[in-house]
Amino acid sequence: MRFTVGGLILLAAITIAPASPFDDNWPVPREASERVNPLTTESPFAKKARLLYNDSCAICHGDRGDGRGPEAEQLGTRPADFTSSAVMIPMSDGELFYKISKGRNPMPAFEGKYSENERWGLVLYLRHFLKAPPSKKK
């Protein structure tokens, strides 16, 4: 088998390339994306969500929600960065709930592990990672 120099460079790049960037091409059914979170931040499920996140999500998404958890580098797709306005602002609560519930390789589905209210609580918790834009001084 013959390889050109360019072919060897491409092969090496593919072999040693880090995990691909966050893949935001995750289709969510319209009816799922239009669901509204029934919980408020005062709900006991919202208060419990931090523990659930630390138990199941932080290992990949990181303690700070930045997608840099200890297992993130091992994945073929980089976990979502919940601190990114480009990721979080366009995503509805229904979309987040669907993704948490259904999962997609390498992310597991959590509808069998957590109750519906616990998953809605996680949606509220994920929203807290988004850094507010700097306020404009007058």
What would your notes on this structure say?
The longest helix has 13 residues, at 44-56. It is globular and about 35 Å long. Helix 3 (44-56) packs across helix 7 and helix 6 packs across helix 7 (116-127). The protein has helices spanning 5-16, 30-33, 44-56, 58-61, 85-88, 93-102, 116-127. The chain has 7 helices and no strands. The chain has one domain (29-127): Cytochrome Bc1 Complex, Chain D, domain 2 (Orthogonal Bundle), CATH 1.10.760. With 138 residues, the protein is mainly alpha-helical. The relative contact order is 0.18.
Computed structural class? mainly alpha
Overall, the morphology is: globular
Q: Classify the fold: give the CATH topology.
A: Cytochrome Bc1 Complex, Chain D, domain 2
Low-confidence stretches: 3-22
Strands, count? 0
